[in-house]
Amino acid sequence: MAAKVPAGTQLAAKQELVRNIGAEVESLDISQIESVPANHVARDLFEGLTAIDSSGKIVPGVAESWTRKDPLTWVFKLRKNARWSNGEPVTANDFVFSWQRTVDPKTASKYTIFLDFIANGSAILAGKKPVTALGIKALDAGTVEVKTAVPTPFLPDLLSNPTMAPLNKGAYLKGGKDFTKPGKLVSNGGYVLKEWVPNSRIVLEKNPNYWNASTTVITRVTFDPTESEDATFKMFKAGQLDWTDRAPSGSYAKLSKEMPKDYRVGLTIALYYMGINNTDPVMKDIRVRKALSMVIDRDVLTGKVLGEGQRPAYGLFVKGMEGAKVSAYDWSAWPMQKRIDEAKKLLAAAGYGPNRPLKFKYMYNTTDLHKKIAVFAIGEWKNKLGVQATMENQEFKVFLKTRHDGAYQVARNGWNADYNDASTFLDLLRCNSPQNDQKYCSKKVDALINQGYASNDLAKRSAVLTEAGRLAMEDYPLIPLFQYTSPRLVKSWVGGYFTSNAFERFRTSDLYIIKH
Amino acid sequence: MLSYILKRIAGAVPTILVVVTVCFMMLHSVPGGPFDGERQVSEAVLANLQAKYHLDAPLYEQYLHYLNNLIHGDLGASFKYADWSVNDLVANALPVSLTVGGISLVAALVIGVLLGVIAALRQNSLVDYFVMFLGNFGSAVPSFIIGPVMILIFCLWLNWLPYGQFEMTPEYMALPVGLLTIINVATLGRVMRGSLIEVLNSNFIRTARAKGLPMRTIVMRHALKPALLPIVTLLGPLAVSSIAQAVVTESMFSIPGLGRLLINGALNRDFTLVLGLVVLIAFFTVLFNLIVDIVYAMLDPRIRY
């Protein structure tokens, strides 16, 4: 909680930080934010019942403690010294108001994934129940009771997200449509909004009323929305930024040698994969899907082509994820030649060979990273199996529609977990899930997922969900390639930064500037 | 003249209406919508979003709704930036674009006219070759080549100027203004040179010369005014492009102006934002062309409306 400055550390006199967040935020209204950049800013402005520290651990936020009364009921005790930036106390009703506003169909929130876990959340979003039916209740000013729709052992994780933070009703009503603007936004986190120039900067200053203000070291943080990795790299070198959202891709070897103290790379809970349209006439043959997956050398891809510490992936789940164990295909340990031989047999059995080569289209949206991976994969398929895959790139929004509509054969895809539980990855393969671009559906897998979700026994839940993931991947609905990393430049004098934070959720109040 | 101005303004309304209608239809026919993302929203959430932004209504109703708001000066809500109306976003970006574009245009006008005059008066001299080279260079080499070279030299090698962020201060504005000026100087200088040479070869100048008038008097009193007419013609489109279409320059220098908004709006399928900017650009085009016509009449007494 807050900055933990090691004994003997000399702090800089000026405690100001300039963080690049990679894009302009879409909103500072916690009911409207959905992007990573907006969450970075909102995390400094608002604090939920729980919070996440710099190392990635869930810690108490406005709630100083919580208990799980039964599988579906949680009770959170709020700290008495929690205050809004206008000095008012943060109460249980502020949470009730905030959540009910977000779930209200009239608010039209885009990012409602957390509220789907709260009792009646989905029904309210669909307009089938009133907002008062939401599973949150103020037992008294300092106690919040939350009822979940299904057993949700990772609820404290969900509640650390700014979307689930409280909202000051008085300030919201008084501010009207401008309630998120400087001078009007009342926040309960470590910082208050001082300045917001769209596409230019957002400036926050330390909130003296924050309950943990005494251990908050940094007094001013500026969020820069510059998008270009190249531009932010130059700005970092020129001393205009203390923190870049992403280091230029492909510069791992150079930067880790030239700027070892500044270049920080951590694994993230995110998977890069190729989605396969399981309903496509060519791709519905499991032998084809398996053969294509087997011959892509993930070690070469991550080590030589990408070279930013990415971890080869052979399953749905990634390292560091809770709720299920990481599994891998047996053949991942085979020598490549054996994999190629087996893949050739599979293709031959499916009716493809030198006389009738397999042909399909690989689609991706235009970025250097996706293009590089596409070229590599197509080369692997051609050289090892004689497959004739063609590449087609599309503008991002067009590509998304193509993929969601299933108008593709094989397409670039990826998943950044919203919360640390296997269920977020399983959503990629559940029948009728909006995230299932693969159009894959297995009743057996769905039954296992449902069984896991209903379980109150954590060990059993994990075992069942691991099996669900393994079983689904035996059908080869997608081709996992690698676990993402977050290569970023952070000045060596920024203390409190840990690469173990796999969700990259950093609160400025946990950081400090070392004398330099 | 007043009736002419009123007629032009009345004539501009259908022009803007056609622009808005075509743009509206085009935006709604492009694949990919404002709420499409890597993470698909559920059907219920999508329905809520569509209801909020009136996207659940038939297209003609959406169109009429937009027009009604437009008539009342309301450019609508941004689909992407929930906290800002399009009016807010434009109000934030317009002064930036106006300042950068305006300064560069004035600078280009002064330098371009001056160089053009010198080149015309010193035909086939070194100065003339230099202006011609500058003109060809500025026209042939695109801004996305000149810009990074300028950044490389002034920001990274010499370290004279900051890079990446933007403030309305001379050190941040120097490069973008400089880049836009170079591009416009090239065009204006070339046109001014050609126009002045043509005027200097005309009969009335020959008469003036025959009368023994000094060259300075001939140029200042008789040649410059008519030679400026093509420059004035150019100023309308140049003003619009300097202010609203400096898309590349604004992206390159992280300028929070209209050009950058337009790019982001198009990429995000932020229909109302794109439409708002299109209306604004159409308005400026009409306005600047009107100003050009008025200045034209002032410079050439033969032109009457």
UniProtKB/TrEMBL annotation, chain B:
Domain ABC transmembrane type-1: 94-296
Cell membrane recorded as keyword: yes
Keyword Cytoplasm on entry: no
Compartments (UniProt record): Cell membrane
Parts of the chain that traverse the membrane: 12-30, 98-121, 133-160, 172-192, 227-248, 271-299
InterPro entries, per the entry: BPD_transp_1_N, MetI-like, MetI-like_sf
Keywords recorded for this protein, A-Z: Cell membrane, Membrane, Transmembrane, Transmembrane helix, Transport
Biological process (GO), any one: transmembrane transport
PANTHER family according to UniProt: DIPEPTIDE TRANSPORT SYSTEM PERMEASE PROTEIN DPPB-RELATED
Protein name: Peptide ABC transporter permease
